[in-house]
Amino acid sequence: MNINLSGKTALITGATGDLGRVMARTLAKCGANIVIHYNSNAAKAKELKEELEALNVKAITVQADITKQEPIQAMHAAITQQLGTVDIVVANAVIQYQWTSILEQAPEDYQGQFDSCVMQSVYLAKSFIPDMIVKGEGRFIGINTECAMQNAPTQSAYVAGKRGMDGVYRVLAKEVGAHAITVNQIAPGWTISERDRATGTEVNEGYSSSVPLKRRGTDQEIANVVAFLASDLSSFITGAYIPVNGGNVMPAI
């Protein structure tokens, strides 16, 4: 059984990041045309575009501030003109910041997480889901985090943003389900990326000891679930929060 996304177009926000690049490569290998969204790293986006085009799919790059509605609307217009409508949206971009305690965390860090987790998802939905409704199908996938269930010290701004995002996705799944549009979230654990491989930091016994599978997951394992949720194999799954973290957190019934 193969995942075949031929003829589909996938938008990945934050596609030049560690996880985003692997998601883009994986969906391209499944046959999807790829929209490479970036905020500031135009060189990396161009490099990734050339890499994906070598896989015999179409790829374009688009720059946008995903925390504001107007740039996302402009991005939608540019994509529609160049590739047509988007079938798969992967909301992966998030603002990075320095974690510290609630008493010391800057208020603007909470605003940044709200904007890049909650409002990014809202703006993407407003721009891209109407086209999916017309088509009568679509996939809307958000990258959440295991931290949303851990609520550990220093995670407060990140957790606040991701838990708010979770609420948006659950409501959206109910609102658009009648149009055969699925809305799901993937919650990675502390994932091994190309950066870890380059620096030799793949192993962390302190973290892995608490994971039932006794290791960190990989960027490819996250991308595999993205591909599954993007495909027809997941056609009856919606409103899900799926941890991909070796069992480090387990949603309860």
Structural key phrases:
253 residues; alpha/beta; Rossmann fold
Secondary structure elements and pairings:
Elements: E1 9-12, H1 18-29, E2 33-38, H2 42-53, E3 59-63, H3 69-83, E4 88-91, H4 107-135, E5 138-143, H5 147-150, H6 156-176, E6 181-188, H7 194-199, H8 205-208, H9 219-230, E7 241-244
Parallel strand pairs: 1-2, 1-4, 2-3, 4-5, 5-6, 6-7
Helix pairs in contact: 1-9, 3-4, 4-6
Structural class: alpha/beta
The pLDDT mean sits at: 97
Helix residue percentage: 40-55%
Portion of residues in beta strands equals 5-15%
CATH superfamily grouping: NAD(P)-binding Rossmann-like Domain
Query: Span from first to last CA?
Result: 30 Å
Total domain units: 1
Calculate Rg over CA atoms. Answer: 17 Å
Brief characterization of the structure:
This protein is an alpha/beta fold.
Structural write-up:
By secondary structure, the protein is an alpha/beta fold. It has one domain: 3-Layer(aba) Sandwich (Rossmann fold), CATH 3.40.50.720. The chain has nine helices and seven strands; from the N terminus they run βαβαβαβαβααβαααβ. Strands 3-2-1-4-5-6-7 form a seven-stranded parallel beta sheet, with helices on both faces. α1 links the parallel β1 and β2. The protein is globular and about 45 Å long. The model has no long low-confidence stretch (mean pLDDT 97).
